[in-house]
């Protein structure tokens, strides 16, 4: 029997990058994966590919920053499948913007998606998990939630918020059988990071910052989501697992 057979998993931001790799990993290990993303076309492509590979996946177009959309999506997934056992709360955005030039609207959008969105999804799913007697939530933070980086004040603040949201949820939900952890990736090669940095910038970044001498792959993070959701992590909650090729060891 596969490790996640019979499990219902919700992955947000599942259309590409780390979310897609995570959805694929859970599906390959036997779960049904409800894949949610704001971008209908990447989501559709991803779902078609995974269905064609024989996996059990379904799709929901969802902007996690819209509380009512989150209510509807979580309710309909629960109604359709009768449970949500695992949440990979992954959706997020990033771009560079110097602190002194930061536009209020840009600051708000970052917090709306990366922190408020994380809260809306986690809270709605946690209510269902409490009723069903337990579950597992993994929030997507970042090494940027543990240390600062120039030109990312909005992003760093959002991910720092996710780290402490995670710890507080773990405290409040542990006795309901719900484990809550965060993943803190360093530099992972995804459509998002490719949209921000040129290959030359990435090369210099690796040289200066990453002891393993390479950037991470989405699959490296997906494996940590799967570990944290598995029985091997049954006594782990309130933890933030860094997946950064050694960057924070400097
Ligand atoms: N790539 C990295 O180096 C890195 C490092 C640390 C943390 N992260 C985090 O990992 C997560 C995924 O990043 P990625 O690099 O795979 O990005 P990505 O852009 O490649 O994929 C993110 C997906 O999230 C979706 N999305 C964006 N806004 C959304 C919203 N409001 N509602 C629902 N879906 C939305 C996008 O459409 C996209 O499909 C993010 O939270 C990001 O902050 C990434």
TrEMBL record:
Q: Which residues form the signal peptide?
A: none
Taxonomically, which superkingdom?
Answer: Bacteria
Per the similarity annotation, which family is this? Belongs to the short-chain dehydrogenases/reductases (SDR) family.
PANTHER family in the cross-refs: 3-OXOACYL-(ACYL-CARRIER-PROTEIN) REDUCTASE, 3-OXOACYL-[ACYL-CARRIER-PROTEIN] REDUCTASE FABG
What name appears for this protein in its UniProt entry? SDR family oxidoreductase
Which organism encodes this protein? Paenibacillus spongiae
């Amino acid at each position: 029997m596969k490790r996640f057979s019979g499990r219902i998993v919700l992955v947000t931001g599942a259309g590409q990058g780390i979310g897609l790799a995570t959805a694929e990993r859970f599906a390959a290990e036997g779960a049904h994966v409800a894949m949610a993303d704001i971008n209908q076309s990447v989501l559709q492509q991803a779902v078609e590919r995974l269905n064609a590979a024989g996996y059990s996946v379904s799709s929901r177009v969802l902007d996690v920053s819209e509380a009512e959309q989150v209510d509807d999506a979580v309710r309909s997934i629960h109604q359709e499948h009768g449970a949500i056992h695992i949440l990979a709360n992954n959706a997020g955005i990033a771009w560079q913007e110097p602190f002194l030039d930061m536009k209020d609207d840009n600051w708000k959008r970052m917090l709306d998606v990366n922190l408020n969105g994380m809260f809306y999804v986690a809270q709605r799913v946690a209510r269902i998990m409490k009723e069903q007697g337990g579950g597992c939530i993994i929030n997507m933070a970042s090494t940027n939630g543990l240390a600062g980086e120039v030109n990312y004040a909005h992003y760093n603040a959002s991910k720092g918020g996710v780290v402490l949201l995670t710890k507080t949820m773990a405290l409040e939900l542990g006795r309901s059988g719900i484990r809550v952890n965060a993943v803190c990736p360093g530099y992972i090669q995804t459509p998002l990071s490719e949209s921000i940095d040129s290959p030359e910038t990435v090369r210099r970044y690796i040289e200066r910052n990453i002891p393993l001498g390479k950037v991470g792959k989405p699959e490296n993070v997906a494996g940590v989501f799967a570990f944290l959701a598995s029985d091997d992590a049954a006594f782990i909650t309130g933890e933030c697992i860094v997946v950064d090729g050694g960057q924070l060891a400097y």
